Amino acid sequence: xxxxxxxxxxxxxxxxxxxxxxxxxxxxxxxxxxxxxxxxxxxxxxxxxxxxxxxxxxxxxxxxxxxxxxxxxxxxxxxxxxxxxxxxxxxxxxxxxxxxxxxxxxxxxxxxxxxxxxxxxxxxxxxxxxxxxxxxxxxxxxxxxxxxxxxxxxxxxxxxxxxxxxxxxxxxxxxxxxxxxxxxxxxxxxxxxxxxxxxxxxxxxxxxxxxxxxxxxxxxxxxxxx
Length: 226
Ligand SMILES: [Mn+2]
Fold this sequence. Notes:
By secondary structure, the chain is α/β, with parallel strands linked by helices. The chain has helices spanning 12-21, 43-52, 62-76, 81-90, 101-108, 142-147, 205-208, and strands at residues 2-5, 29-32, 56-58, 113-115, 119-122, 163-166, 181-184, 196-200, 211-215, 220-224. The radius of gyration is 17 Å and the shape is globular.
């Protein structure tokens, strides 16, 4: 089975409980649409767990991107690598001591989108033309994909056959509760992932205490938390 979620933001325990809830096993696939780090207290611990998972597709969000920008700045004027790692560790006040070079290198290699046969995953949004048609992903900048401010709007409905999974903006600030929000195509029933224009995944776990995920095969959602 394939489970998609976003914006775990250092909520290590919630994430572990979610894996337990869905009986996640080595044969399953996990896709995280970015923002693993910051806000919650266990950014590095969570990131290392995600990197250790067998079948995980992990994307960069704006928080990983901001961390990398800081890293690239430090590297530009670096005298020695030890002092760079020291500063990077202080970027995470709660568990930065766990940060190592392997984790930094893997963060730097994170992709900004993932495209499957029936769906596309991205952190904040995709470039669309005036008609809502997707522009080629390979031409999109990382900034566009991690900071997009428009894609979340309810009237922005990507056309084309694939469903777009995204997070970035908490469901509370979009005026909803703490649910994963589905944008169903007209005349469709919603039992296949292609029945949706887009699916918003960010339930604001670090704020609401609720973390959810979407199972692609049967379009079921699962939640842990309050
Ligand atoms: Mn974000």
